[in-house]
Amino acid sequence: MAKLTNPLKLLLSKLPPMPSQPPTYEARRNTLSQLAGLIGVAVLVHFQIANLSIALFALAIFALKTTIILGKLSIPPRLVMMILTIASLGMVIYAYGGWNGQRAGISFLILLVALKFLESQSLRDYYIVSLLLYFLGASSFLFNSSIANIIIVIFYTVAITSILFQISNPAKVSLKNTLTTSASMIAKALPLAIILFFFFPRIQGDFGFLPSFDKSNNASSLSDSLVAGEMASSAFNNELAFRVEFNGGVIPKRSQMYWRAKTMPIERNFQWSVVEPDPNDFAVATKIRQSNSLQAGKWRYQILHEKSKDKYLPYLDYISGSSKGQTLPDYSVYLARPEAGPFSYQGSSTATSSSPENIVAGFAAAIDRSSLLDLESKPSAKLQRLLRQWSDGAVDDAEVVERVYQYFANNPFMYSLLPPSLDENEPLNDFIFNTREGYCEHYASAFTIIMRMLGIPSRVVVGYQGGTSVNDNQFIEVRYSDAHAWSEVWVNGRWQRVDPTATISPERIKYGMDALMELWESGLLGSNNTG
Amino acid sequence: MSDFSIGRKALYILPTRVGWYFALILAALFGIAVKFDNQSAFMMLFILVAVGLIAMVYTHNNVIGLTIASHPSKSVFLGSPAVFPITLSNPSGKPRHAVWLIAGGFHQLSTLGGGDQQTIEVKLPTVQRGFFPCEPVNLSSLYPIGIFFCWTKRFVSDERCLVYPQPLDLVPFPEDGSHHGREEATANVRLGAEDYAGMKNYQAGDRMRDIHWPSLAKTNKLVSIQYENHSNSSVNLSWFTLPSSLNTEDRLSQLCYWVINAEKNGQRYQLEMPNHTIEFDKGMNHYHACLRVLALWGDNIDVVGEGENG
Fold it and tell me: Are B78 and B167 in contact (CB under 8 A)?
């Protein structure tokens, strides 16, 4: 065993010798027409998903191949194939501005299938085309994972299997035999697949509708980044985050209860993330501590926080005093070392951020405008026209903010816990003009990006909104399902909170997440989106 | 005739090249499902994984339990294929689809219904005179969707085909023995030399002109007239009369051609080899005995003992 042997070769050497390869045969024309039919269906479905020019191009290639099959012609010469391949690559890049993205990917795939089908001659080529069709069918779920689509794709899979069945059988088989065999194979596969589905460990993420199994072992926290579509899963996490007891019975209205945890100033393609505080921030934090007063605020409260690994503590917007952690210039409270178990702290807050007149030392009026205007997303031409409309003739930034806010209010935007995924290349454009369905992070993200595009310094804030009143307002319980994201804009020399979700789904803010979930479950909300 | 039943230990299965492509597609799909955390894509992935597993079971079940049996093979002349009849039978009630029977370079596809059996003539090219053993026989199948293929252990048939030398006409046919003045000095009367001896059932190799056509009309059977010819010609087919320019194989080929010719002409003939002579005679047994000697010439097999039992 000292000699290193290829395990596969070792295995093969122990097997009896393989017989010689049976002679190859030509795929039957009948089978090829069926395969052509399946590719035709795929191309037609593609019209719904992808760029029109690409779908047309795929259709043209498909038509060419169909002519070749029916007319028993020979396939195009190599040069033509090369030109077509380069042309299709060019089209994908031109249509989507690059490789990345689900739509670009699926368009590339459909062109690949069409081109491979066009050049196919041998059995193996047709095998590969059929296998690619399996993949294509499955990837349609990235755009539509409704039950109806799943059923359609399962039937499609039966059809592909029947093609493979015919290709691999040198003798002619009846269509009935073909279909019954492939249908029975899929029927036998389904129970097995369902078992695998439930017992196969997932590397990442949960199935949205299922509670995660191991939450109790791990301390929860709010994510340090905001990715469209991720926060919605927390809507189903009913775990308690913290309890609040207000001193003196002065309790803010539910719509005022924004529990601010962290700000996210960095934008990368519709995703936001926090910045770890730097020494400069801590220097400011020391200054702020001097003016820290638990007595100053309008609301004074005690928070009993459950175990958490989060470094940012939730305080009611806007903080004027805190008993724990370091208050940073962005009003978030930072805890360098998370507590091992549940912990409590006190805070006091006022309704507005420090106004220019009585600015608390440290929350300086001077902001780093350039970092708060930095964007990775670029406005599309369509969005640019809209931006111009918003900024033209506005007296001040406040009016611009109001105009954008009204745009969300006056257009058919919808609040959804299971929003459709966005185009990877232009998520903002896709969201503003196409899908118009999102959870709070979509609105916070879109609104903040638009603010920055309009030159108004802004950032995304993540925390909790609302809470459940317990024992006649003795406590407020805030759960992870209350997690929320909103926007903050720098207008008139101070930070102002803008929550675009409030205009889309006032119920969310007014009655809280629980009430919304009831609406959701009763089907009154977002009933038109199942996936 | 020996039977060979395909049991579990005699059956092997591996993915085909297309099967590896299939695995590649599954891996890509897994990547997509994880990246986009798409539960439907996961479901689809698992359906395809299950299809792969079920295809494997189908492939296996398509060949397991079949039995192979071999039958004796008829002698042939070098150059024409040796034919080994192999019976493939399906004792189970389930039909078997697209099973390849493979022996060397020979491939035959067969589909067997439940309880069916099928005899396949395995034709293998002959390259050398002498005994030609049947190539080991394998069964193989790609059924149902070509992502797995299974193959069996080799079935080595006991049957062998005796390959006679290739008949070649290089030297003119020797004159009748009478001209050489050897043993059977008889008058060389060709016409009417043969005396009527009786009728017998037609046998392959009988002359066309010997067929008794009126019987065919009456009994619908081919009957040939048999002649007794004491007095007809006889010929000595001798190794020694061949020119020395011919090598061994050519000599054997030439003798083979003469044997065929003599038998066809109804002559009595004697095969004279350096160490062994088959005495004057005619008829099928004599014919095959002579050819057998030629086929096995130079082999260590005791051709004499076996050859003279006819």
Answer: no
